[in-house]
User: What shape does this take?
Amino acid sequence: MKAFLLTLCALATALLTGCVTQPTKKDQSALVAAAPRSILVVPTINKSLDVDAPNYVLAALPMPIAEKGYYVFPVNTTKYVLEQEGYYEGERIHQQPTETLAKLFGADAVLYVSINRWDAQFALITTTVTVEFDYRLVSKDGTELWKENKQMQYSPQNNNSGGGAMGVILSAVINAAIARAAPNYMPLTHQANQQVFVLGPNALPDGPYRTTAVKK
Assistant: This one.
């Protein structure tokens, strides 16, 4: 029984943040040579069960890209224009020739994002919230310039400092239930975008509109 309680306590205090795999440095010569100035972010492909995920993810994409110094077409305007052209679903938009999409807006490159995971899984007394995205940047002539995958996970931390083993377990169960009922995906989404576009080993090179004051 004691061993079982110790195991449950260890699970209850687990805190998982970060990516599952450590990316290696990739060749960015094509991206550097293309030197895009403007990036069109199109609606995402949603492979998760949450119908609201695409809107949340789309809204979070422009800021880190603009932070790197690129002009990003307003995503709501982009979505509206595409709908006027008959493109409502992310899957159909991603199937269109990049040349067509880029020409429609006068963009130098198009960013495609797929939501692979956007879920909260319950196991014993913990809930693990997971997001996973595929990113792909394609030049206006159809050449793939850059791609990346990012997965982030989080389990709520147990902050109960008293009450013994049973208190820790009860606190963990409550935290896990809250996380499962109303998982907060956005912090993980923002972290994933920062890692991919700004901080990671394969982050976008500085664009033409990044000021000298913020360049590293």
Remarks:
- Residues 1-20, 162-182 have pLDDT under 50 and may be disordered.
